[in-house]
Design a protein that fits this description.
This protein has about 180 residues and is mainly alpha-helical. The protein has 8 helices and 5 strands. Helix 1 packs across helix 5 and helix 3 packs across helix 7.
């Protein structure tokens, strides 16, 4: 259990890494899509055979990434580009001191902890970058980001938290995230 009044970054990471959500908890995606995305490397989990009887379970980071995939697909981004973005986002963060987190996981955890705006930028070449609000504004001002798709992660995170608010630890993150914004 975690303290209700404040959370450390490590506590947020611990909660977010617990595989506690099932496909039924995610109304924006089907099992068929998930299996296909695993096979095409849009998701990092190893593909499970349906006959194994093992159900898909996801942690909070997975849920946010799955929602990103759904958004990218809704904007017509093809699977090869999404797989490249996934590869970029899956690289391990070299600064992580305790748990080995991907760049994406670290940024989601820090966004929850610091309440800072963050954007996932996808170029037309399929390069994925996570940038702050100021970095994004400078990219636009300096015409560095020409044609791109941007996903506002802090808004997406709020949506996923409210969707998963049946979980007691997620409720505590919601309270922390909303109380200190």
């Amino acid at each position: 259990m975690i303290d209700k009044t404040s959370l450390s970054l490590d506590q947020i990471i611990k909660v977010c890494l617990q595989k506690r959500f099932k496909t039924l908890d995610l109304p924006f995606v089907t099992n068929r899509q998930l299996h296909h995305w695993k096979a095409t490397r849009l998701l990092n989990e190893e593909r499970e055979l349906a006959s194994s009887g093992k159900k898909n379970e996801f942690d909070f980071f997975d849920v946010v990434w799955i929602r990103c995939i759904v958004l990218m697909r809704s904007f017509g981004v093809d699977n090869l580009l999404i797989a490249k973005v996934n590869s970029d986002m899956s690289n391990k963060d070299q600064d992580s001191k305790t748990v080995s987190l991907s760049i994406f996981q670290k940024q989601i955890a820090e966004t929850l902890f610091d309440k800072q705006n963050c954007f996932l930028i996808v170029s037309e070449q399929g390069d994925g970058r996570l940038v702050s609000k100021n970095e994004y504004a400078n990219m636009i001002k300096d015409s560095i980001a020409r044609h791109h798709l941007s996903i506002t992660l802090n808004i997406l995170i709020k949506e996923m938290l409210s969707l998963l608010d049946f979980d007691s630890d997620i409720q505590k993150i919601i309270k922390y995230y909303l109380d200190t914004e």
